[in-house]
Design goal:
Length: about 40
Amino acid sequence: MVFVELEKMLKKDGWYYYDIIGMHIIYKHKIKPRKSYHSKT
């Protein structure tokens, strides 16, 4: 799977582009919270 295919799947599910931090693209969803991989839980 390439990025373009993954991005299409995300957008179809309601995710939208929010920001870019370094090489990381941040997407948000109106209902679903994002997972934080930086938390210690």
